[in-house]
Amino acid sequence: MSDERSATRRRHVLGTIGGGLGLALLGSSGVSGAATDRVVDAAADDRRYRLPDLPYEYGALEPHIDERIMELHHGEHHQAYVDGANEALEEFDTRRATDDFAEIRAPKREFSFNYSGHVNHTIFWENLGPDGGGTPEGEFATAIDERFGSFETFQLEFSATADQVEGDGWAMLFYEPLADTLVIGQLEDQHELAHQAAVPILTLDVWEHAYYLQYENDREAYVEAWWNVVDWADVARRYDFVTDHLAGIEPAGERLDDHALEPEPDRQAHESAEKRKSDGPP
Ligand SMILES: [Fe+2]
């Protein structure tokens, strides 16, 4: 990584981890504030989630993924996750009004499942495109080679990971910021087997609703066809964004030490005032 990118990275690590992570999830255009409106009704006071438009027509991924699959998958299944997440938020609001948190576990789980489904699918749509396929380029391609040995080995591991998801779930390529590396993982359902702090940059839905109408029970054929519609430019943009913002996250203690060594002006003024107070009048 260049010194300039490293310096940029350093500036962002201390102050924008949460924001960077959120924006990274929103899509290839997610570095602009307007992207938030695609997945959240930001204008509304309660900021409820919304179904994003697809960046292509329902039939654009044929013959690899049928138009009818896309129509149902996006319009019915993804919409259901959006609705479920919003219902959970409403349930939380209702309970807060009366401080009634008995049996809160069920709605918390509902939120985790549906919110994760919303995020997973939002990335999935944008990872794909009618001009997809081929191989990645640039720094992302180099990172793939360094981590997995070759693009071909990466594909084999990713496909096997998808084929072997037990029941409904996902295969995902994560950027893992602690070690500044890439990791292939599984998710069961939408949210089990989470990889905390790691950011998904490539997601493959292997729920039956993603392929059964076209491939029946042949998940491996679906996974093989899916490679033909992966938009590597989108994945590479996500990789560049998260490495710029999140690479090299350090344990909190070290970050706090750094912060103490390089106090911001406001912090210095505050600390001086506090010290004067504790020392008493001059
Ligand atoms: Fe799905």
UniProtKB/TrEMBL annotation:
Belongs to the iron/manganese superoxide dismutase family. This is superoxide dismutase. It is an enzyme of class 1 (oxidoreductase). Keywords: Manganese, Metal-binding, Oxidoreductase. InterPro entries: Fe/Mn_Superoxide_Dismutase (IPR050265), Mn/Fe_SOD (IPR001189), Mn/Fe_SOD_BS (IPR019833), Mn/Fe_SOD_C (IPR019832), Mn/Fe_SOD_N (IPR019831), Mn/Fe_SOD_N_sf (IPR036324), SOD_C_sf (IPR036314), TAT_signal (IPR006311). It comes from the Archaea. Its EC number is 1.15.1.1. Pfam families: Sod_Fe_C (PF02777), Sod_Fe_N (PF00081). SUPFAM superfamilies: Fe,Mn superoxide dismutase (SOD), C-terminal domain, Fe,Mn superoxide dismutase (SOD), N-terminal domain. Residues 48-128 form the Manganese/iron superoxide dismutase N-terminal domain. Residues 252-282 are annotated as: Disordered. Its cofactor is Mn(2+). One of its GO terms (molecular function) is metal ion binding. It comes from Halobiforma nitratireducens JCM 10879. The lineage of its organism: Archaea, Methanobacteriati, Methanobacteriota, Stenosarchaea group, Halobacteria. The keyword Oxidoreductase applies.
